[in-house]
Amino acid sequence: MSANTRNLGLPIHELETPALCIDLPAYRRNVARMVAFIHKHGLAWRPHMKGQKAVELAREAVNAGAIGVTCATVYEAETMAHGGVRNILIANQPAGERKLARLAGLQAVTPVLTATDSREHAAQLAAAANEAGAAIPVLIEVDVGMGRCGIAPGEPAVRLAEYIDSTTGLTFAGIMGWEGHVLAFEGEEKKKKIEESLALLTATAQAIRDAGFEVGIVSASGSGTFRLSSAVEGITEVQAGGGVFSDLSYEKWGLDHEFALTVLSRVISRPSATRIIVDAGFKSMSVQHGMPKPIGLGPVKKIVLSAEHGNIELEEPDTAHRVGNTVAFIPGYTDSTLCLHDEICVLTDGTLHAVWAIPGRTGRR
Length: 365
Known about the structure:
Layout lengths: L18 E5 H17 L3 E2 L9 H10 L4 E3 L2 H9 L5 E3 L6 H10 L5 E5 L2 H14 L3 E6 L13 H11 L4 E7 L10 H24 L6 E4 L5 H4 L7 E2 L9 H5 L8 E12 L2 E4 L14 E2 L5 E6 L4 E5 L11 E5 L3 H5 L4 E6 L2 E7 L8
């Protein structure tokens, strides 16, 4: 049992720190905005849980209108499936005999789709499925410009669809792509690059249909692109997930949601009027995609994070924040911050309402 589990009902400033905190009403408003926007464009929402992890958050999304969830690993999918979540997509290519056996075994709990981008990988999926007496539903991942996983668009994807359709143990369910390479662009240039990228995906879907195969799912898009990609004709669902929290990176990438996830720290030293030392460092707050930002302080000159310390240097003297006071931070990137914590402190009106475990956070398997 964590220390904060015993603190239900207490105000935020009395929590043990460092603590990962979610403002539940703000989170729900973000979810409602995402669902409304995605549904307005006639699309389904399958939020990515790689930066959320907690089963309770998956249930919140499904209750709000999501058709299921997206995961990055078999371990995450196991956590969701055994937590009662259904309709799961692993937007990745799991590999390794034991891992694929676990994926095949999950099909007895709930259908778990997975991505593939080659005959070699698809054959390994089929072998695991046949060994378990199961059928694994498969999406072909198409490289739409990301330059990571994914088969080339067009004819190569058609040939792979033919192979999957003819292979015992596999069920061809559709295709997916991720236009993440466009995140740094802005305005009309970003819109144009998203449209160009997803045109490769939708044209590939049509080519597969023309070859005689049903393409039930065309899955794409993340929180930094969905507000532009949702208007692209031909996609069927959106994987955007991190926008339910928002953070400084998503704000930079054009998302205007509330900051629902913060890291609460406590002042442990005041070496000078312009320096504040808190008990949260890089083991509590990721620096991936940018530094976190403290809330309620004056202009910050510099922040340095060591393992267990945050060293804040201010532009002007501060006498309000004394040893023992709390300072909350907006994460630079919630995906890589959440996985540093074992639990989320759930807040309503500044009071601890619940503590949710993050069982999938070690899901690197």
